[in-house]
Amino acid sequence: MYNRDEIRVIIYSVTDGLEDGEDILTEKARGSLLLIGGAEDKKREKKILKRFSSLVREQGSYLVILTSATIRAGQVGREYQEIFQDLGIDMVRILDIDSRAKAMAPENARILEKAGGIFFTGGDQLRITSIFGGTRAYVALKEAYEGGTVIAGTSAGASVVSSIMIVGGEGEDSPQLNSVRLAAGLGLLEEVVIDQHFAQRGRMNRLLFAVAYNPHILGIGIDEDTAIEFQEEASFLVHGSRTVTVIDGREISYSNISELEGEQPLALLNVKIHVLPAGYAYNLITREVIIP
Questions:
Q1: CATH code at 57?
Q2: Is the predicted pLDDT of residue 24 greater than 90, yes or no?
Q3: What is the total count of domains within the chain?
């Protein structure tokens, strides 16, 4: 198993105006992310939720459960509140920001700013972005993350953190134009697109299509009861009982995506696919798997 120091990746870049190729340290993100593919174990060993709880306790502050994605906010919020309290987090607050008025409220922004951990429940990721976009709560969320707050999301809560998110599509047939629908996400994670309930709902085709649209974006499909943990945005470690599928389209040699019409199938050549179980890590900069 890796620890934080073993899989931390430092990113260097050379920019214009520097003499003799001087390097500048450029960290894409300061906070930690734990993204869960949904249906995580809540009753037995709770390995993924235990890992998140330990990260939050390190921050020495309270945990906020955000129920914006679900229409069953009270029930879902209380369920997670009880779980995290049982796992040793003393202060757990449920914050149901279910309208843009609440997302603009200064008191809700302050709650997010000071949190040691923020947990997005499952539901509908479009509910999150349509409520949070451009609000005080959104600014507070980003500032909290950049300041070191640990942010986790399950199911829709995992998909929403990237700049581009999958919001729907028909994944069970051959990849066609209707295989995936994309929208803007929260933008905490750049240059990736996340799908969840991945193997269980047959979503390989829609993730392939998402990568075909823009091959420099890395596709990450997370199975149920499985999670990826980013210590920094440059790398992640796999946790849980199933697998994570990584689709790397950087070396795609041919695609017919710009010419598709109607129900014509997608052609995609030389795409690279990795399937990673728990304990494996992946470097997003070098696009390499780290084998335990």
A1: 3.40.50.880
A2: no
A3: 1
